[in-house]
Write a structure and sequence with these properties.
Layout: E1 2-7, H1 24-37, E2 46-49, H2 53-60, E3 67-68, H3 78-85, E4 94-98, H4 102-112, E5 125-133, E6 136-145
Parallel strand pairs: 1-4, 2-3, 2-4
Antiparallel strand pairs: 1-5, 5-6
Length: 150
């Protein structure tokens, strides 16, 4: 199964937190990443998005259908992200658009098998692939891409 973690692009400061919108720079970041992702995404990808405005605006740059999932809201857990995506056994790959520190914690759980923190840049993706090997799941980091590299 492929699992792509996409941190929302740059957003305005302020409260209420759920209503923070993308800045002009954030819209450019989301657009650049969407242009890179779209030709690479499997046709059966599930796009799962936090219900916060900034994550939905980030996902909208793809121009594809997405589902909002309360389990991905700010303050979510790595367990919630993995369960929402169906890792590692889902029949479809998943793209999760969410927040820090949750996505960094999820990435480290996949890479190290431990509860650690990692920083994901705003608008960046980390693309993982889970493969069954000898009765266990082997996790491969396929790509890390930040919008300022594109």
């Amino acid at each position: 199964m492929d699992l792509i973690l996409w941190r929302h692009a740059e957003a305005e400061d302020g409260v209420p937190d759920f209503e923070r919108a993308l800045t002009a720079r954030g819209r450019k970041q989301a657009s650049r990443m969407a242009d890179w992702l779209n030709p690479r995404l499997p046709p059966d990808i599930r796009i799962l998005v936090s219900p916060a405005t900034r994550t939905m605006q980030t996902a909208q740059a793809l121009g594809r259908h997405y589902e909002t999932l309360a389990a991905l809201a700010p303050g979510a857990t790595a367990d919630g992200v993995l369960a929402g995506a169906g890792w590692p056994d889902a029949s479809h790959p998943a793209l999760v658009v969410g927040h820090q520190p949750t996505l960094g914690q999820t990435a480290m759980r996949l890479l190290a098998g431990k509860d650690l923190d990692a920083a994901l840049k705003k608008g960046a993706i980390w693309w993982f692939q889970g493969r069954a090997r000898n009765g266990r799941v082997e996790t491969v980091l396929r790509a890390v891409v930040a919008p300022d590299w594109l």
